[in-house]
Amino acid sequence: MEQLLNYIGENMEMIYFLILAILLGVEVISNVPAILHTPLMSGANAIHGVVVVGAIIVMLHASPDNYASLIVGFLAVVMGTLNVVGGFVVTDRMLEMFKKKPKKS
Amino acid sequence: MSLNILEITYLIASLTFVIGLKMLSHPESARKGNLIAAVGMLIAVIATITIYQPFDSSKAINYGLIALGLVVGTVIGTMMAKKVKMTAMPQMVSFFNGMGGACAALIAVIEYQNHTIGVGSGFDGELLVMLLGLIIGSVSFSGSMIAYGKLEGKIKDRVLPMNQLINMLMLAIILGLTVYKMLGYGDSMVFYGLLVIALIYGILFVMPIGGADMPVVISLLNSFTGVAAAFGGFLYGNKAMLTGGILVGSAGTILTILMCNAMNRSLTNVLLGAFGGNKAG
User: Fold this and answer.
1) pLDDT tens digits, one per residue of B179-191
2) B205 near B219, Cβ under 8 Å?
3) What is the mean pLDDT of chain A?
4) Is residue B46 domain-resident?
5) Is residue B65 part of a domain?
6) How is A25-78 classified by DSSP, letter by letter?
7) Are A79 and B103 in contact (CB under 8 A)?
8) For chains A and B, what is the number of CB pairs under 8 angstroms?
9) Domain ranges of chain A
10) Alpha carbon distance B78, B54 (integer Å)
């Protein structure tokens, strides 16, 4: 029990951060029109690709002769990058359709 | 000093995520919002590689693999995203979402190897964060892959007898094993067991849900991956990961509910809809 309280105490800053970010997330996207549901989902999908930063950190920590970690970490970097790059490009393509067409054509 | 620069770049990245998400929810600014978040992401990635740890030539292979991974991911990701048909967008999102979930789960797997476990030494917060990242990431990965397969028409809707009961049972096993592991019992078999059960749970979770409801499920799994990424952020005390992940976690959950509302249905109705859907159809 004491360790649990210690852990919470040590990470108090992060916990504050977590709770405020949750409330912010709710606040930021309320009032979104239905037409934007799918692009917003796709954009959010790209944003959680930030997990690739964690994969890079894992790789930087890994000892160069620990091949198992290197291989799994490499896979994680590839997958995380797929999430980020694919996510942003797909979102951009979806939003391209919303572009107002020039009046002349 | 340089570590402070890293923290500042993470602050900038976090801000771009919030602003990007906000702009994405308005039609006029949506495209710019997407771009802003992408720039923030690029800054975070570059800063992590260059500042996080001073370059150490004995780790040249690590840097090489990171660079290769980034290039391979970028090339494949761009190609897939450019080639996909407009009508096939939702499953593409689901696929990329699954990749993110897998990434979070793999991070937990590697960190677990490096983690020294004190048996019976009381509460181990790092282990809990790893387990949660592993479970949620795995469920998100396998679930997203099934959703992808369903929308591609490669996987048919199949409902096991008593599917919901089996799902509840599996969820109970996952919870039980997590508590067991947290109490300091069991070796790494329990950890990998959890990985496997979570993967199966993800499959069974999405399997009975009808194809028309897939976008809602993808949105839900999207917020799962966000939460898994946030646990990764918690593990490293990395604020960019924490903000990015938890923002998507909470915004994604709200978005899921909004999508259900737009269809005049409740989330429970969608998730347990297999029964009702079959009766109606």
Assistant:
1) 999 888 878 899 9
2) no
3) 89
4) no
5) no
6) HHHHHTT--GGGHHHHHHHHHHHGGGHHHHHHHHHHHS-TT-HHHHHHHHHHHH
7) yes
8) 352
9) 1-31, 33-98
10) 30
- Give B64's pLDDT tier (boundaries 50, 70, 90): very high
Instruction: Give per-residue pLDDT as tens, B125-144.
Output: 889 999 999 999 999 999 99
B25 and chain A in contact, CB less than 8 A: yes
Residue with tokens 């993800």: B202
Note the pLDDT tens digit of each residue in B244-258. Answer: 999 999 999 999 999
B94-122 confidence digits (pLDDT tens): 999 999 999 999 999 999 988 876 555 67
B29 inside domain? no
Q: Which domain holds residue B189?
A: 87-280
For residues A63-79, average pLDDT: 94
Q: How many CA atoms lie within 13 A of B139 on its CB side?
A: 25
Q: Is B80 among the domain residues?
A: no
A-chain residue closest to B60, CA distance:
A64
| Contact yes or no for B226/B252 (Cβ under 8 A) | yes
Q: Which residue, among A36, A76, A31, has the nearest Cα to B62 in the 3D structure? A: A76
Residue B34 at interface with chain A, using a CB cutoff of 8 Å: yes
Longest distance between any two alpha carbons in chain A, whole Å: 71
CB contact under 8 A, A86 and B96: yes
